[in-house]
Amino acid sequence: MGLVGGIEAGGTKFVCAVGTSSEASAARTEFLTTTPDETIGRAVEFLERQAARLGRLIAVGIASFGPIDLDPASPSFGHITTTPKPGWQNVDLAGVVRRSLNVPVAFDTDVNAAALGERRWGAAQGLDTFLYLTVGTGIGGGGMVAGKLMHGALHPEMGHMRIPHNPQRDPFPGSCPFHGDCWEGLASGTAIQARWGTRGEDLPSDHAAWPLEARYLALGISNLICALSPERIVLGGGVMRQAQLLPLIRQGTLELLNGYIRVSRILEHIEDYLVPAQLGRDAGVLGAIALALEKEASG
Ligand code: ZN
User: Fold this and answer.
1) How far is the CA of 45 from the centre of ligand 1 (A)?
2) What is the value of pTM for the model shown?
3) Fold annotation for 123-277
4) Is the pLDDT of residue 296 over 90?
């Protein structure tokens, strides 16, 4: 049973774990993201220590904040590219880990990795075309089409889609530094806090914030359903811990689709179609482990 490593590289913290195909997480640690040298160094050191204890590492998966370069033909493949996070522009994250540990490295976005983790252990088992969305500090989306993680010119940046915004109803201009009122700018946890002056988790569950939030999430989700035809959409992230949201999002999505898409998995089984993530706060690092297991299986 080969040991693999997982690194969830987040802008705020790194989470590292090792696992095998039968035990998803045999050991785990997390620490704050500081400078690239120090932070990547700590991740490498943790994985080396676990390998000395549990056996040789056969692959490492990295689930990274972005934007990142996923084009194997590009000279900056494996790099974090244009992030606004100071010190982290053009950092060769995958390369440093590969050279330090001398193992094959699988590298992808945090949301694609979380999608893969949900498919292996969570809410997307048995599906080949599905999405994973996280609604937290930002909004991010990844997933699979026909059994392959979604890549391309860059990688999906679903949080920066444009959705209708009526400034009479919601005068908040949006919080995205690039676009103002893109989806993330209107509906992320950052936007909720900026619009209402209070963190979402401190707002009561019957606050006017939530129907508006559900409306924005349903708008983006109905666009994604029309564009990508997923078999299921898995919703995670801190904002989705508000239990009152998901029923409102399901209802809003059905209203927006308005009977046009006639498939029973949406029309009749919306509660199995828009579903909560099952891997919780560890979705990212478990996704990184899943990436490594996939890499190992494919050679
Ligand atoms: Zn944006």
Assistant:
1) 35
2) 0.94
3) Nucleotidyltransferase; domain 5 (3.30.420)
4) no
